[in-house]
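Budget justification, computational time. The allocation requested in the original proposal was used primarily to generate structure tokens for proteins on the priority list. As evidence of use, we reproduce two of the resulting records. The first is shown immediately below.
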Amino acid sequence: MAATKPDCAIVNGYLVPVVGEPIPNGTILIAGGVITDIGDAIEVPAGTTIIDAHGRWVLPGFIDPHSHVGVHEEGNGWAGADGSELTGPNMAGVRALDAINIEDEGFRDALAGGVTATVVKPGSGNPIGGQTVALKTWGGRTVDEQVIKAEVSVKSALGENPKQAYGDRKQLPSTRLGIALVIRQAFHAARHYAATRDTALAAGEPFAHDLAQDALARVLSGELALDQHVHRHDDIATALRLADEFGYRLVINHGTEAHKLADVLAERDIPVIYGPLLSGRSKVEVREASISNVVTLAAAGVRVALTTDHPVVPITHLVLQAALAVKAGLPRQTALEAMTIRAAEISGIADRVGALTVGRDADIVLWSGDPLDVMNRAELVLIDGIEVCRWENDGYVVAERGMTTRRSAA
């Protein structure tokens, strides 16, 4: 029995906590936006608001750990294209948070797909693109009220995208050699900067901060991860080499050919945010794209999450990607974890989201059945225990904004 009087209770549902066994006819108690109890023999106090989940599957909200929702706005063309600040190859000081339009239609799409959290990242036009942010997909009056973690990582890119962006201008970096040089020089400079800064501050001396250097120093200290946009196996090898040189925490993003190095990544416990799985082979780097590649990675013991790379693939199709991966041989438990607890762990937000357990945020979705069956749909979406989206009369009804999260961002 929960000590705090619950605000509401979800009862009679088929609960899928993800981190534990399913609970038929289970109950979840929610108070203050947090799960306070979960099980199959829980007494619901009188006066508690009841959500009857009879016949429905109840899961934690899904997480897309790599999207551009709100920074690559849909249908707004040039005016909504704020993903890559291409005025310089090292843009570690910029933040995706400063460009997010929470009225981008992608956020409503996320709710329809049962996605209640995402990590929004700058684009991949720069060798170092900027800082990422984890946020809820609905609820705030401003984007700041949806933030789970204000800085998750620094985005970096290898391969074709920065090569083309700067090569077309005949400036550094126009080759893979040049891209690695830019990243290497930036981290050497950040290492020197951090030492100089720390000495000055310890002595009480004035110090002129550089936002790009500060961000990279946080990567070097392990506070932030380096999210590496990379497709080809040789570029993945470069990503590993650079991580070895500077000792930072590396996360592979996309990883189209990561299956070729699956054993290496597993040995080093380097996670892969794989995808998108539904896009075409639009450039040379992704000509070996295949849903079966993520199956190979998981079988080798690599920690995997799934991404839509929204708007490359609409974020509402995250669960469809998982279903197709299961069809290709990915264990269904691994597929569920890839959209929930694994995505949360890789993004450093697993204390808040990713599973149905006591103490985590009540970001909960009621499905008409197994979400990995494409015939089922999200019928009710709660964020922080508050209803934000409901299937009604053959369409989705989304709540007005203004519901604020109960915790401030980390």
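The second record produced under the same allocation is shown here.
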Amino acid sequence: MDDKKKNIKDFIQTLSLSIPVIQIDEGIDMFKVDIDRAILYLYMPGALRREEENNYPVIHIDYDQLCSAPEKIINRLKGQHGLGKRFYARATVVARIDKRVALAFQEEHHLQSALPGKYRYGLFYQGDLVSVAIFSGGRIMRQERLGYRSFELIRFCHKSDTLIVGGLSKLLKAFIKDFSPQDIMTYADRDWSHNHSSLQTIGFEIIKVVAPQRFAIVGKQRFSVTTEEQQVDYYIENKGSLKLKLVL
């Protein structure tokens, strides 16, 4: 068996220990996996995105992520299914955290690269850091009105296999109290969210669908690219992202 296909099948087997796998359809360059309440597309190196069904949430996972962060993917899926540990934000304490702590937490629990940001907030449950939100500095938006400042929520994640109900709302409230922004914008990965985002339930509105982004894969590392580069194993292109804004 091809090593890449074997790695994908091993991932599906591991996933099935946590979430029921209903059906697997093996294609030439991807696997379609029906799991409880969602559909996964698992792509071989360089494969193109497929159209997705609209009756279930659809998640697109590339081979490089499957190899580099299988536990993070499975834990995120478990969180979406309400599995694992579950706490309410009212049982947590919010506090500012330093760059070192924020980066280490992201590297352990976030699928994308860790970013330091300018302002960093964490939720603590019984002294344990369980969720972080990373914000940019403020940007003056002169086209809006005098003194209008916009900030970006650049990273947010929970501790793996943990869901903090109301956690992001609590982190946002703390940030808003400290900095009084006129709006907060962010991006949602369409590989996981398609044309909607859970952020809409707390007041964010979609203002733009951002075009797909191209990446170069070197080993197990992913790099953003705009032109052809040397010594690249293969290229992938995601489904783009949703740009959202919370107006305050």
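A brief technical remark on that second record: The mean pLDDT is 92.
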